[in-house]
Amino acid sequence: MKIVFLSRYQNKVNRGAENFVSEISNRLSEKHEVDILSDEKADSMEIIYKGNYDVVIPINGRLQSLKASFGRMFSKYKLLITGHSGIGRDDLWNIAVVRPDIFIALTNYTAFWAKKWAWGTKIVKIPNGIDLDKFSPDGSKISVNLPKPIILSVGSLVWYKHHERVIKAIDKLGYGSLLIVGEGNKKDELEKMGKNFLGDRFKIMNFKYQDMPKIYRSVNLFSLPSWDREAFGLVYLEALASGLGVIAPDDLSRREIVGDGGIFVNTENIQEYERAIERGLKINWVEKSRQQAKKFSWNEIADKYEKVMQDLIK
């Protein structure tokens, strides 16, 4: 097979979508010819036509996906779109307007939602994956100079990640520290709030993606209280693979991802949230969390994508 990923921001940012492209393309390229078009090339139909691809996978949605869809009128490739935008307008556009040959939902909940809008598009559920060797409890750590126990939250500093909830929960807990890793337009606001509530028990930091396994090994518990339209939440898998317990919002997608590796709670209720964190700190999660993470091995995920694409071009 000849496959191309259209990923405008590849090697510029380390979001779930770009990580997906890197992990899947590396594995598929062992048996197939795989290209990644980034920057302005990711939107070039001329390059796509000349490439004579079997499968085209646009990552950035909207106009990019629509152009790739119309391109099937002049080329014989199949169009595959993954649900990295999450439930909402972007993936509604990708399903109902773009109408790919196949749409990959990342959770059962998203697959159920997608099928309501899929007219002539096949819906298949394949989750994101995790590199179990890279993210592991064993290995070097990084000192973050915070009092233990340390609770970690990883995600963009934007409103729908709701980092403010975990700040309030740790404040109510009365001990331990909070480390938030990420960047975004809410940084100054969260920095001020964190210092006001937690003082020296709080830090916002940013690290290169290759250093994140060391960060997970350096903390005691993980929690990201983001909204229920989160497309998947790869950071939950990173935490689980690292042997951490996860305190997660109580919704169907998070239950599917975190499984027995965590505690589910209504994170809007700060008192309940604080109690869940306290419970989580008293449990040795390593075995349960690693077992849950093993369900999401990138090698197995890549095999599923390979089969889907081979069936698609028959």
From TrEMBL:
GO terms for molecular function: glycosyltransferase activity. It comes from Candidatus Daviesbacteria bacterium RIFCSPLOWO2_02_FULL_36_8. This is Glycosyl transferase family 1 domain-containing protein. SUPFAM superfamilies: UDP-Glycosyltransferase/glycogen phosphorylase. GO terms for biological process: lipopolysaccharide biosynthetic process. Residues 144-294 form the Glycosyl transferase family domain. PANTHER family: GLYCOSYLTRANSFERASE WBBK-RELATED. Keywords: Transferase. InterPro entries: Glyco_trans_1.
